[in-house]
From TrEMBL:
<feature type="region of interest" description="Disordered">
    <location>
        <begin position="1"/>
        <end position="23"/>
    </location>
</feature>
<feature type="compositionally biased region" description="Low complexity">
    <location>
        <begin position="7"/>
        <end position="22"/>
    </location>
</feature>
<dbReference type="InterPro" id="IPR051942">
    <property type="entry name" value="DENN_domain_containing_2"/>
</dbReference>
<feature type="domain" description="UDENN">
    <location>
        <begin position="80"/>
        <end position="474"/>
    </location>
</feature>
<dbReference type="InterPro" id="IPR001194">
    <property type="entry name" value="cDENN_dom"/>
</dbReference>
<dbReference type="Pfam" id="PF02141">
    <property type="entry name" value="DENN"/>
</dbReference>
<dbReference type="InterPro" id="IPR037516">
    <property type="entry name" value="Tripartite_DENN"/>
</dbReference>
<protein>
    <submittedName>
        <fullName>UDENN domain-containing protein</fullName>
    </submittedName>
</protein>
<dbReference type="InterPro" id="IPR043153">
    <property type="entry name" value="DENN_C"/>
</dbReference>
């Protein structure tokens, strides 16, 4: 990996990073970071926790399956035509439509929850690029309603051919809807269902009804009933296509990579823009993968359709892809200069070709430190991680080798910051446990970071899902091994106070 040189014309940041030991925040500023993290969590996570508990009690495999096809405008509903409004001067003959749903959708559900353009955002471009489209694409759309209900839509888009193989049909999108973030499992299910659905004379109602009655294999539950359903093998160790991070991160450079990573952890609104849908989608996949084993618990839309740019006005955190020509519709929410307050470095706009363009171009390391500090990161904390990643950016190796090193360094950094959460078991999310985690950390910079990060939806969603649901066990087990090795030590007295034991 190699890093592009900084621009010589870049203006100097307004503050210095010569000292990496002092925190340089007032108590009011520190409280501001903590308050923001709490507010975001209350807005987006509390309702979702209730939703997950209800899903676990009902224990259905999924909440809905949709099939999205391109149909003539005259065959689509009025709502679907409104969703697919095209720019002036542009004509389109076919638009996305929900052609099948199990269970059946009511009119209100269709209009409110499942606008088909979200699951088929590039319908305007499909006709011109049909021969070059991959046979199968997978992407996740995460939506959060105003009430805080969250939906994960696992989309599998596949190409169909006539029996002769000479004629191509428009790709169809198969969508498995669930409130639960388990992409490896649901893409296995989706791929299997697509394989069956492509066969002739398949009764969709019978197929999906048979699968719908199954139970999700939650943690510590036996999944013996999930092995074969109507010829579908759900116990295959299939994993979705693994996005490679290092080629993209090498292209944008260390400064942009570091800043975007920290902005995601700080739960900012992030708009990824460019001229190519493929490039935008890839960038978002890389950003989401970069924070693993943490997961982005907020709205995630790989590409916002041209007709629904208003989704970017959402005040809660999101990561949204947006074609560059739509940026002019967001003038009122985009700022033009650096703000030194935490609330105003938001939204962040990243162009896949030009780099970070808002709040300010990242010209050198000092730019990263200035902006990161305004989001609540002490300089020394950022410097330690940046130094580790810089060594990887300078290395040579295959993308797979470099990705493995990046994942290891980031996971070790997590373990050194908050890996001691493993000591607390089910009390890890209590206010007292969080205070102990902060006070027991030996480094002041990490204490300052943990004060607000442990209040965030990002951290608390990760712990909650780890405790109660079956995440990617291999990834979590590897992270727990790193926690045992690198996590800050906690005194036996503190653990006894919480009823925990030394792991």
């Amino acid at each position: 990996m190699s890093q592009p040189d900084a621009s010589p014309d870049c203006p100097s940041p307004k503050s210095s990073t010569s000292s990496f030991e002092s925190i340089q925040w007032s108590s009011d500023e520190t409280e501001g970071f903590v308050t923001r993290a709490k507010v975001v969590r209350y807005q987006t996570l509390e309702r979702y926790n209730t939703q997950l508990k209800k899903f676990k009690e009902n224990n259905q495999l999924f909440t809905r399956i949709l099939v999205i096809k391109l149909v003539e405008k005259s065959r689509a509903t009025d709502f679907e035509n409104r969703c697919a409004a095209v720019p002036p001067g542009r004509e389109v003959s076919v638009i996305p439509s929900v052609t099948y749903s199990y269970p059946l959708l009511t009119k209100d559900e269709t209009d409110v929850h499942f606008p088909p353009t979200l699951f088929y955002p590039d319908f305007l471009h499909v006709m011109s690029s049909l021969p070059s489209l991959p046979p199968i694409e997978e992407y996740t759309v995460v939506l959060t309603t105003e009430k805080g209900d969250r939906t994960y839509a696992y989309c599998t888009r596949y190409n169909k051919q006539s029996r002769s193989g000479a004629d191509h049909f428009f790709p169809e999108v198969f969508v498995v809807v669930s409130p639960f973030p388990a992409p490896a499992f649901y893409y296995t299910l989706s791929r299997s269902l697509v394989d069956v659905a492509l066969k002739d004379a398949v009764d969709y109602n019978k197929l999906f009804a048979s699968v719908h009655i199954l139970k999700y294999p939650f943690k510590q539950q036996v999944a013996s009933g999930h092995q074969v359903v109507m010829g579908i093998h759900l116990n295959n160790k299939y994993r979705p296509f693994q996005t490679l991070m290092s080629p993209f991160l090498s292209k944008i450079g260390l400064n942009a990579s570091m800043f975007l990573f920290l902005a995601i952890l700080a739960e900012r609104r992030i708009i990824v823009t460019g001229s190519s849908i493929t490039d935008i989608s890839l960038a978002i996949q890389v950003l989401v993968k970069m924070i693993q084993p943490l997961q982005w618990p907020h709205t995630l839309i790989p590409v916002v359709p041209d007709s629904q740019v208003e989704l970017c006005h959402n005040p809660t955190p999101y990561i949204c892809g947006l074609l560059r020509h739509n940026l002019n519709q967001l003038k009122e929410i985009l700022v033009s200069e650096i703000s030194v307050t935490a609330d105003l470095i938001d939204p962040i706009v990243f162009d896949v070709d030009q780099g970070v363009i808002l709040p300010s171009p990242l010209c050198n390391k000092k730019s990263v430190f200035v902006l990161s500090k305004s989001m609540g990161y002490p300089d020394s904390l950022v410097k330690r991680l940046m130094d580790k990643l810089q060594k990887i950016f300078a290395r040579k190796g295959t993308p797979q080798e470099l990705d493995a090193k990046l994942e290891d360094k980031i996971s070790r950094w997590y373990a050194r910051q908050f890996g001691h959460f493993c000591h607390f078991g089910r009390t890890a999310l209590s206010a007292r446990s969080r205070r102990i985690m902060v006070s027991s950390h030996p480094q002041k910079s990490s204490q300052a970071f943990l004060q607000w990060f442990l209040e965030s939806g990002m951290y608390q969603a990760f712990v909650q899902l780890k405790l109660d649901f079956d995440l990617d066990r291999e990834m979590i087990e590897n992270f727990e091994k790193l926690c045992k090795k690198y996590a800050p030590k906690i005194t036996k007295g503190a653990l006894k106070e919480r009823g925990a034991t030394v792991a």
